[in-house]
Amino acid sequence: MHILSGMAEDVFKALADPTRRRILDELVERDGQTLFEICTRLATKHGLSLSRQAISQHLAVLEAADLVRTRRQGRYKFHDLNTAPLEHIVTRWLRPDPPEGRP
Amino acid sequence: MHILSGMAEDVFKALADPTRRRILDELVERDGQTLFEICTRLATKHGLSLSRQAISQHLAVLEAADLVRTRRQGRYKFHDLNTAPLEHIVTRWLRPDPPEGRP
DNA sequence: AGGATATGCAAGTAACGACTTGCCTGTCAG
DNA sequence: CTGACAGGCAAGTCGTTACTTGCATATCCT
């Protein structure tokens, strides 16, 4: 009964979109970017030319899934990657079989 | 440059739907079920009353993502869970940082 | 053979998701 | 203060997706 109960379900939806996965890639490479930085780097490095609003909405989805944490500083808003929700979503279907002893 | 290159992208889309995740839960608990078995158990145990076609289409998506393997036997078609695609989709964003040492 | 069982195919609907456009709020530099 | 910069809000469009309904195919049992 956590407060964040429904959040694990949001992680899957957040990861469903290719653009959002690119954003996570970008944050892995360079953490703490602003919205404009992400827009620019997605456009130049990955050839994605989306509007600022589109990226902003994607970031909102990632933040709702707790995959991205934000900290405000003046007129800037920095986005930090949080990989914690990724560690438990897969073990849900992995059997508790011992990894050793397979003759 | 595998033949199955585009399939990793399908895994995320396959996991995006709650019903499909329920189906995976069901197959973890009991592998090798038929379509009707899955329909029945989803209806009774989880309260999901979807049409047979809906479940069939969900299984097709899971099979396209290689999360479910099927084997035909007479008029029955058994569905087996395949967790292999789940093991590499998360490591993409996990930094190689040591998990210890957080004062 | 004939009926019941298990599944497949096709088209149609309804809702959701991604993206855009336009305007508004807050922040810093001159 | 004024203008440039960073970000947020709201509504609208368009394609995708989940689900249903109806019909068709294949296999088993008697």
Query: Do you know the CATH architecture of chain A?
Result: Orthogonal Bundle
List the strand order in the largest sheet of chain A.
1-2
| Helix proportion range of chain A | 40-55%
The name of the CATH topology of chain A is Arc Repressor Mutant, subunit A
**Can you identify the CATH superfamily of chain A?**
Winged helix-like DNA-binding domain superfamily/Winged helix DNA-binding domain
Biggest interface, residues from each chain: A-B, 20 and 20 residues
Structural class of the helices, strands and pairings of chain A?
Answer: alpha+beta
**Quaternary structure of the protein:** homodimer
Mean pLDDT of chain A comes to 89
How would you explain this protein's 3D organization?
The structure is a homodimer of 103-residue chains. By secondary structure, the first copy, chain A, is of the alpha+beta class. Chain A has a single domain (7-85), classed as Arc Repressor Mutant, subunit A (Orthogonal Bundle), CATH 1.10.10.10. In chain A, 45% of the residues lie in helices and 12% in strands. Chain A has four helices and two strands. A two-stranded antiparallel sheet of chain A has the order 1-2. In chain A, helix 3 crosses helix 4 (52-64). Chain A starts with 6 loop residues before the first helix and ends in a 22-residue tail after the last strand. The relative contact order of chain A is 0.17. The model of chain A has no long low-confidence stretch (mean pLDDT 89). Chains A and B meet through helix 1 and helix 2 of A and helix 1 and helix 2 of B. The structure holds a DNA duplex (30 and 30 nucleotides).
